[in-house]
Write a structure and sequence with these properties.
Chain B: One of its GO terms (biological process) is tRNA threonylcarbamoyladenosine modification. The structure holds two protein chains of two kinds. Chain A is of the alpha/beta class. Chain A has helices at residues 39-43, 50-72, 91-107, 117-123, 167-177, 185-192, 216-231, 238-263, 279-289, 302-305, 310-321, 338-342; strands at residues 8-13, 18-25, 29-37, 81-87, 112-116, 135-140, 145-150, 157-161, 268-272, 296-298. Chain B has two domains: 2-94 and 190-219, ATPase, nucleotide binding domain (Nucleotidyltransferase, domain 5, 2-Layer Sandwich); 103-188, ATPase, nucleotide binding domain (Nucleotidyltransferase, domain 5), CATH 3.30.420. Classes of the chains: A alpha/beta, B alpha/beta. The complex binds zinc ion.
Amino acid sequence: MGEFMSEYILGIETSCDETAAAIIKDGKEIISNVVASQIESHKRFGGVVPEIASRHHVEQMTMVLEETFHQAGLEMKDIDAVAVTEGPGLVGALLVGVNAAKGLAYAHQKPLIGVHHIAGHIYANRLEKEFSFPLLALVVSGGHTELILMKEHGAFEIIGETRDDAAGEAYDKVARTLNLAYPGGPKIDQLAHEGKTSIDFPRAWLEECSFDFSFSGLKSAVINTLHNANQKGETIKQEDVAASFQASVVDVLTEKTYQAARQYGVKQVIVAGGVAANKGLRSVMQTKFQSEKEMELLFPPLSLCTDNAAMIAAAGSIAFQQGHRASWDLNANPSLSIEKYATR
Amino acid sequence: MNVLAIDTSNQVLGVAISKDDEIKAEYTANIKRNHSIGLMPAIDHIMKETETTPDQLDRIVIAKGPGSYTGVRIGLATAKTMAWTLSIPIVAVSSLELLAHNVRQQNILISPFFDARRGLVYTGLYENNHDRIFIKKEDQNIKMDQWLEELKSLQQPVVFLSQDIKLHQVIIKEKLGQAASIPSVIDHLPRPGILALLGAQKSPESVHELTPNYIRMVEAEANWLKEQENKQHG
Ligand SMILES: [Zn+2]
């Protein structure tokens, strides 16, 4: 009878400052999705304090799980496997999720599945639209800027990555220089729409044919420009700095993604991670890919751009189908690479 | 009553299963390793040894610290989730109180402690009275020399228990002399079996509200609070 029954995967995510759990059906349908954000708690420190994040995860975990099952109207006995983010992320934060997942899976003797956080971000898109391969994913967040090629489910190949700062990290640093409240990324996006791209900030293209990124030069250029203006007693409009900075980031992200997509002849281009919520990036990419009739450009819905557990369950579902099982000694791996994960 | 006890609050990893008033299985490892690797395999091992299935568990007992922040969290994340999903009571016991139970001598003061670096320890003062352990001074984070002064003023014999005893035994002997007693190595090891029996006697806590006993505030938070105070008075 098994083959006609639906598959339910429970996902757990605690890699940074969101305590999240979700249940999805057949890898594609969200049944419940609960995220307890800690932003308010970390705001006063201007960034995530790892020890505080870990403490909150322990406090929130069972409540988040209870809400997840309550919303779904399901019980653990209905769940086929427990999927959890094993890395990358903050080690103390990851450990709470990993051990909670083990407790759940062990108590009900269910399979346990470790999931790579970035695989999760990519699979958030499968909750909207079925994948067609080959597929190129641009992953942009506070910790990541990567171009990942997927030839089939569960296969991840990095074809380009940042050599210094992640795009989201550059956003946060520029936001801090502009004295914008944490988290500054969305605020810059907002300001950018009110400003003009009047400052010509550098764009790091690196070597020809390289799909790697670099944002530290851009970040320094922004800081220097503000510093110099300040010394001369000039004022530059914050909106213009934001607009010019964002234009530079978006330009490089869009162009490199476009070149890579063409070179590998991909059928879909997926943008994933927190920066995928950026309106500037969305509109420039849409324009760029408009004429490509053979290529489909996909953005996750805004609610699935930031960290959540539905995406972990979605990636976990594929891993489950492919027969991956973690053993009871599963540990958190703060620097887990996606290529190593793909060949586990 | 089938009880599963878990202690990952310090370097020692301990799990045990007790049935009614008997310890059925105990696993203790005293090695430097991430408890996330060792805990669930150890639980699985003793569950199988005692032919206990998870749904037969009636209660979970957890050592709630003080100790290693990460270690305590690994234990609590596991214990809380298991207790919640199995709908069984959870009982939390001070990691220091657990250690204090290693002393069988009657009517004596006990100072279990864990080294907390920079001359600090986590400790509390307990007393064995008619085979029961009572708390005399609550668990705290304190400079060892200051703690020893406090104990000295009591003018009573004190037993010291700790996996970190070697780091502090010179100063203990120096400050307390004959009043300090340091038992043999076996008594410094926390026993998960004792945790199971102890937890069977205590009243359960709310699973959602149970948190580790870190004792210490996060440094960033403490600094922030100090800053706010300075702003108000400055
Ligand atoms: Zn993320």
